[in-house]
Amino acid sequence: MSSLALKGPYWVTVRQHRKALWWTLGLAAVAVVALVTSRLWSDSAVAALRAAGCTVSSENPTCFQPTRDYLDDQWNARHIVEYAAMGMLVLPGIVGAFVAGPMLARELESGTYKLAWTQSVTPTRWLAAKLAVPAALVLAGLPLLSLAFYWAWRTGPAHDYPTYWYEPNVFVSYGIVPVAHTLLGLALGAAVGLLVRRTVVAMSVTALITGAALAVLAWLRAGLWPVKTITGSSVDVSASADWRLDHGMVTATGERIRWGDCVVTPDVDARQCMTARGGVAEFMDVHPASHFWPLQLVETGICLAVAALAILLAFRVLRRRHG
């Protein structure tokens, strides 16, 4: 990574951590190559099946092996996308741990920060540089990685081995949430690094706190935007694009009763049980696919607000301890 255009503490930060930054860029490139490979692998599987004159539903005995090879290839291609999604899921914790440990706590622990502060660099500028460099890398690179993931996921083997937009690892892998989560991890890492001032401990605490924060967000996600309630005599629960949250029946008074509340026997099915309890119409609470962006925007706003508070805390701790 060239640091010729950088000056002062920003140049020093890049020089200090150039190996880690190069490794980051290298891993991002590997992830993009893997996603492209997944997409090409999926396409080649489709082409091979067509060349054999077969379809997945074909009953011709000669199509058994081509169909099996096709499904195996699609399964492997989908696995690559899922591994990429898991990487995006843990990325905020990794970034936060790096900022908390090697970038901040290590300098505070070893005392090397004092050298920078004797070179006409104030503590505030020093911390700003430590945060600006990884933040710039996140803002420049992560949207591209997110787009690559969306392309591979959306156009890959979705029909044979589907994953849906509302699944936790997929939701955090494209759109604007990946950037917001990673900036949150960075901010939490800065606050923890300045508070703890011990490299290994700071990295561990940051990973734990970031993981807990993202787990809470995942738990709250369904309630971040008003759900859509579908009612009728027979509600279709097979619409895969909808994030189904609750399903049951309503009584004439509007009370909700749920399928799980009924005891089903060989002589009484669930619908008979629900009707006997006063159910007159089915209901289903869903987030349709159109709620993807509202949910992303609300979650992003929460992440950025918490990140701003963490950064403010970091600067306050720095001023209190070092003036």
TrEMBL record:
<feature type="transmembrane region" description="Helical">
    <location>
        <begin position="293"/>
        <end position="315"/>
    </location>
</feature>
<keyword id="KW-0812">Transmembrane</keyword>
<keyword id="KW-1133">Transmembrane helix</keyword>
<feature type="transmembrane region" description="Helical">
    <location>
        <begin position="200"/>
        <end position="220"/>
    </location>
</feature>
<feature type="transmembrane region" description="Helical">
    <location>
        <begin position="126"/>
        <end position="151"/>
    </location>
</feature>
<feature type="transmembrane region" description="Helical">
    <location>
        <begin position="83"/>
        <end position="105"/>
    </location>
</feature>
<feature type="transmembrane region" description="Helical">
    <location>
        <begin position="171"/>
        <end position="193"/>
    </location>
</feature>
<protein>
    <recommendedName>
        <fullName>ABC transporter permease</fullName>
    </recommendedName>
</protein>
<keyword id="KW-0472">Membrane</keyword>
<feature type="transmembrane region" description="Helical">
    <location>
        <begin position="20"/>
        <end position="41"/>
    </location>
</feature>
